[in-house]
Every structure is written in C-alpha cells, then in structure tokens.
Automatic annotation (TrEMBL):
GO terms for molecular function: protein-glutamate O-methyltransferase activity. Gene3D superfamilies: Chemotaxis receptor methyltransferase CheR, N-terminal domain (1.10.155.10), Vaccinia Virus protein VP39 (3.40.50.150). GO terms for biological process: methylation. Keywords: Methyltransferase, S-adenosyl-L-methionine, Transferase. It comes from the Bacteria. Its EC number is 2.1.1.80. This is protein-glutamate O-methyltransferase.
Amino acid sequence: MGVNDASHKIISDLLEQRTGQQLTESRRWRVSTALAGLFREFGIDNVEQLACLLERPGEHHLATKVVEALLNNETYFFRDHVYFTTLANQVLPDLARKRQGTKKLSIWSAGCSTGQEALSIAMLFCEQPGRWQDWHIDIVGTDVSGKAISTAKSGCYTQFEIQRGISVAQMLNFFTETPRGWQASDRICSMTRFQQQSILDFPPLPGRFDLVLCRNVLLYFDPDTRRMAFDRLAGATAPDGYLMLGAGETVVGQTDRFESSEWGSSIYRPASIIARVGDPPKVVAGR
C-alpha cells in the first residue's frame, strides 16, 4: 500500500514534533507495515484515512498510538557484542580507577528501548564481583516510547527476546522463567531504573554520568537536531567520562563536544578544549 505525499507529511511531521526523529523518504515504506496493527485496532482502511483523522481536533490518543507504532524499538541483549567486551575489559576498569575514592558509578542508557542494553550492563558488573564489591552502580535507562519503558520497568521478556544476545548460562543465572515470560533477577534490576524521556530534553538525574550510551538513535535526526542531542549528551557526561555510540554513528563532522578515545571506534570522550557553557548545573552527590 503506497503513501501519498500529503499523508506522508502529516505523519512524518507528527513523529518529528513528538520525538525529533525524521521519517525520511527512504523510510516511507515502513509506514503501512508499522501501522497495520493500529489500522485493525481502530478500523482504519488506509494511511490517507488515518491522516485525515489525525488532522481532527482531540485525536491525541490516536496520535500517540501512531508515534509508538512508528518508533524503531529494535534491540537485544549485548547488541554488537564486541563493544560490550570493550566496556567490560577497558572502559569500566578505567572508570573504576577514576572512581575508587567514591566507589560510585552513574550510567545513562539513552534511547534504551525495552531495557536490554541497561540490563546487559548490569550483567557485566555481576560477572566481575571481585572488582565491583561494595560499589554503588546506578544505571538509568530513558526512551521516548512509553510502551518500551513499560516493558523495561517490568524486566520481563518473551522466549524470543531472552534468546537474543545472551548465553544459556546467562539466561539461567540472571532470569527466571515465569508464566508471563522470563523475569530479570533482583541482582540486575536493583542497579537499573527507567523513565520515559526524550534525548532532546535535559538529562535525567543524577546529572553528570560516568558513561553514556546512545546507540542507533542519532541516525534518525537531521543535522541540527543531532547537534542539539550531542549538546544534551555532553551536558550529561562527566569531563573524564565516556560516550558510546552505535556502530554506524560518529561524532566526526557532527559536533565539537566530543573527541575520539583510545578505546577505538564508537567510544568517545568529552572534548577537553570545549568550555562547557550552558550545561545543566546538576552534580552527583559526593562527586
């Protein structure tokens, strides 16, 4: 089913206004497929009818449903496993040395989707108990999708979801099979908390994070919105902390707020030459 230009603009404008994401021409094909379930739920015949309904006053509930359906919540445990190996063996040990005095680490998973990324990081800490004994680990996951955050807060995953990215040993060690699905254990849930929030808003508390992960989110922003997002990420990252992007993302030519780190592609540090003017005045207690 094709999507005419007028209908595409109404729907793409809605998505950009709510999330900052662009529904580019290359993604137009997703519209009908992504909205098929919503058509059945509301008895809508086609995209043109939906666009007309969205133009009527008072259709906030329908508009929210459309945005949720169009968001790409694709994720899985330890996605791009090599980067988690770098976190476990290089980045986190470096942060452990820097924070030895306080034994506190704050991590932000921005665009966390249904929570697997945040829980993957929690598993890294549990798998190195000697190094992290007596540490306070706070992992905050945020996403613009209320539906995704609801799943993340539940910590419960289907058989399909639980098999993506983790070994059988990890599955049995960190999850329990229940009638509702595979439930994450208190060992990893106690380190994580989730809230619905756009990456374009000011960063969530506690403010300055030792590590920020923002992977495969910036791809959907136009250049100006991407620069704004980088400013938000820079305001959230401790001066000696790190930012991890997705495999297809880079700071090169996008922002001067970050620079490459010694840990290879996709891991960056705040640029030391940049005066951090305008950052939100939020500081982690004891930092």
